[in-house]
Amino acid sequence: MQDSSVKEALTSDHTELYDAIVARRYFAKFQTIGGYLAKVAAELEQEGTLSRVEARILGGYVAGVVATFRALNHKYLMTGKAEAASRLTIDRHESGFPVAQELMLMAVDAQQAAKHLGGIGSEAELKDRMLRVILSDLKLPVGLQYALSQRLYYEALQAGGLFWLRNDPDAQWLGQAGARRKYLIHWAVWDSGTNLPVVYLLDVEDSGKKPLPTDEDRWPAVQQKILAQSVAGLKLLTIATGFDADFDALHPKRLRRITLGPMYSSSFTLQSGPISQVLIDARAPDGQDWALVWTVEDLLSDREEVVKEGWFSSRLRQVFKLDEFTGAETGVTALERMIILPERPYQVMVEQDPVGFQGLRKFIVGAGGRLIPGR
Predict the structure, then answer these.
(1) pLDDT tens-digit readout, 18-63
(2) Mapping DSSP to helix (H, G, I), strand (E, B) and coil, where does residue 271 land?
(3) Confidence (pTM)
(4) Superkingdom, according to UniProt (predicted)?
């Protein structure tokens, strides 16, 4: 069942959640979904799709997304109740996540967190004052409740471990490949075009004189290069070939882009295509009216070739393997889409068997919150 306050606000791709109950349902839904994202990562590790290192890294980013939603929940806890409370803006079309602007504001708030906390009483003090207002004035201490929600928000920002608009690259050493060092470079962004969290995993071999993470010349340049190209609209082939051309001693062997979303829900988003009918016909109870898509793009190096540069020099270049049928269009070796959804919407999807979802791998949330891998 749709919340009427949400329906009234649905006038564009972006909408504000201006009712406290609606906002709480929204955050509760994502807290639930976040737990299943971690379980999917664990399942992919168990079956060998992800290595232990990759699963740990991806799990860290998923935990960051959950922590970000938890912090935003505190920030907007008093939406529609306290006069000073602001409203969360979400992308209701092909995203379901908060807009990137929310992450920008969160980063600014994090810089001033200590200052804000210095001007707010402690949690114990605020709760004591709230109790006295309730007992003596016989009214709800809305202002104090808002102050407490903001204290919890700024404390969450100070605690860290959140998924930010930009999560800078890190390099995980994986061992040696002959004379070359092997690294897994990973980073993540909240893509401003799609309003979705996106994780990148880049396997490289390093033939440089100094280890990449301690190379004062190469490492800053690498970070700047890959962050500048972390845009959903760019093909992986474009990103990888550009990287290969810019860094002689770095040899990209595999690049993956993992997009966490979109999230679909009849209560909060506008759907097009068969997913809309699936969610409508499912008539799932509150908290089970959702589906989340998880996309993995994968680009592999097929071989290395020596390419001449000028009259007297040459260098190694990667030749990337593209999918035989869609590679020219997608710029990837392989692309896999997965969908996570509760049991009732899954049952309806099986009954209707829409063409657009026949190729997706399914993860079903069963009784007791158990995650059931399907096909």
Answers:
(1) 888 999 999 999 999 998 999 999 999 999 999 999 999 999 999 9
(2) coil
(3) 0.93
(4) Bacteria
232-238-242 Cα angle (round to 5) = 120
Handedness of CA 36, 37, 42, 44 (dihedral sign): positive
Q: Which of 159, 183, 199 is the last residue of a domain?
A: 159
The yes-or-no verdict on residue 7 having pLDDT over 70 is: no
For residue 209, count CB atoms less than 10 angstroms from its CB and return exposed for 0-12, middle for 13-18, buried for 19 or more. exposed
Rounded CA gap, 230 and 250, in Å? 18
Alpha-carbon span 115 to 100, nearest angstrom: 24
Q: How many CA atoms lie within 13 A of 63 on its CB side?
A: 9
Amino acid present at 260? L
Give the CA dihedral 87, 93, 97, 103, nearest 10 degrees: -70
What is the CA angle 22-23-25, rounded to 5? 65
User: How close are the terminal C-alpha atoms of the chain, in Å?
Assistant: 28
Write the CB contacts of 118 (distance below 8 Å, at least 6 apart in sequence). Answer: none
- Per DSSP, the three-state class of 267 is coil
Q: Which of 143, 159, 175 is the last residue of a domain?
A: 159
247 in the same domain as 153: no
| pLDDT single digits (tens) 128-152 | 999 999 999 989 999 999 999 999 9
